[in-house]
Amino acid sequence: MLSADDNNSKNYRENKKLAMRTPQIFRYFVLSILLVFSSYTLSQEPVRIAFMDPLTGAFASIGNSGLKQLQFAADYLYNSKGGILGGRMIEIVPLDNKQSPTESQLQFRRAVSGGIQYIFQGNGSAVANALNDAINRHNRRNPGQEVMQVNYSAVDPILTEENCSFWHFRWDAHANMKLNILTDYIAANEGINSVYIIGQDYSFGQVVSDTSIELLRQKRPDIKIAGNEFHPIGQVKDFTPYVTKIVASGADAVITGNYGADMVSLARSIIDNGLDIPIYTFYAAYDGITATLGEDGKDRIRLIHNETSNPIPTEQRKEFYRAFKAANPNNDVTQPRITNALMMIVQAMEETQSTDPYDVGLALEDMRFTTIGGDEVWMRGEDHQVFQSLHISVHTDEGVEFDADNSGFGLYTEYSVPLEETIVPVNECRMRRPRR
Amino acid sequence: MLEVFIFATLNGLVTGLLLFMLASGLTLIFSMMGVLNFAHASFYMLGAYFAYSISLHFGFWTGLIFAPIIVGVLGALVERYGLRRVHQHGHVAELVFTFGLAFLIEEAVQFFWGADTKNYQSPDLLDFPLFTLFGQEFPAYRGFMIGISITIFISLYYVLTKSRIGIIIQAALTHPHTVSNLGHNVPLIFMGVFGVGTALAGVAGVMAGPVLTTFPGMAVVLGSIVFVIVVIGGLGSLAGAFIASILIGLLQSYAIASDVGMPDLLNLLGIEFSRDHPFTDLWTLTLPQIAPILPFLLLVLVLIFRPTGLMGKREQ
After folding, report:
1. Which chain B residue lies closest to A332 (C-alpha atoms)?
2. Which residues of chain B are within 8 Å of residue A237 when distances are taken between CB atoms?
3. Which pTM value belongs to this model?
4. Predicted pLDDT of residue B316
């Protein structure tokens, strides 16, 4: 058997012989082709997009599930079909911010030093606000190397109101928009005469509480606010003491913006203590929540969200769901807005033939886009807030073609509001537009 | 008001007794090795996850028996092959070892079971309200938790104070060399105590899993509070740990149930602040809002006024 060394030297000798025989001009030709090819591969370097959310700690499950969805959307829609912008792949870079504003600043520096110009972030409005500040400061000081904040889920209204920024785009309806629809729905229910509001003690929880109280007062002044409670985020071991208060208050319904472990524990305590009233939520599904609620939560837990759940309107989105499920059997497509954000950004990149966030940002403004679910989406130019139809769905096992957590249970859409009716006026947004 | 008070007391008892199951093992291990086991709450989490996996195939009750045993054996192995080797390098090395172990266990749990919440349910047998008072149900499962915890406390107390093995353990804690000279295998006793301590944490995990939900963050949520209890109760004191656990359970529960806050205090004093006041967050603070930090406040007070803890005997 010939060793590798022998083989190499043999090849080398043969190459040399060949080289001596080939005419000079042919060698220049080969060289120039090589040069062209190498510059071609340079331009084909991937478009890097960061995904910054908690990948460890109490909220790790939501972060990891989001990461899988973004990764899958990039691979399934683009990378497997030859990439974007004539052959560039999308590379998703996970950054673990542990749901902490301080950690987010550190991770943001990491992203910047890695030359990343797009950051997906969704969990925690406190984090989103901190990131917003950091990005604005960075962009002001580093013209030409700007970064875009792709907010797919942080719903504190302030991000598109007082603190609105050219570099921030939000692909989720903000808390006030969602509560506007949710309170309409509650107000229409004659059986509800008093509600209890409970939420996490930070900006988003406070917004949910303040807005719900105000809107309910306008729409149904007779509804009594039986309680308005805040608890520290991610710290409560047992919600039973809170449920005791809810029972004692005699409330007919509960409104909460809780998510992750705080949502499961709250819902479980309500169910375990035999409190049989409807719970109106933002995030009570998927990532183990649906499975944990199971039969006990049936027809009692409702969510307000964008993009319909079951029945899924288009074959294209069903196909997307099935493919995702085949690749990630233990996860679900929990946030179609992640896909929407990616698709709209890619469309803007293709339109402008650029990955510069400034060009892409301009193209995104007032973009109208139809999602794979057949839903029309409008990104308002003035404040970079997205508008699309909003839905209220119920936790059930009836009519659920695509379940959550492989539990047989899932969401069924009961009530839908078209895009036009979700629009709220631009509020206090005086956007400083970058000069170029 | 009465109904809130009664249920707050019951809830406080459930939480307190659950905390005691964790604190008892921790305080025993401390008095034995002189080192706080940072990974203690991680064994609690392991208990919940093992029980969840077992319950999928053999039901809740099998999990209740076998999960703590597995956790206890794991704990004993950690002592035998980990802590004992690190011991010769001093307390700091031991501390760092348990600290690292806590991270390792959390990562391992995420690796094997995933990051999402597990659907670990209480048994159907206990799926009924024990009693209904003022229209509010008290789940039988919580009654069961109280029963198990009290049984464990009594038997632990009995074994430690009345039985022969308990006397040897107590002697080994304070005078290991003498006990060793009398012909007892002290390292084996230590391994046993560590195993039993972690198994107790395992029992707590098995029982808390269905109520407090089983997810990778459950150790972190409970971890710090257990240390608070051990320090308030007095390091190494079982009775102190019991009193501190119940105290903290009730304290939190009553604080949440109460509806008083700064606004009431200010009203009483006749002071008023506008909503634009720079410290408006402070003036509108309510007791339920700060309930989860009350134990830490108590810890600070105890450390200032009684550094040995409520029942602690250690003198500097």
Report:
1. B116
2. 15, 212, 221-222, 225
3. 0.78
4. 43
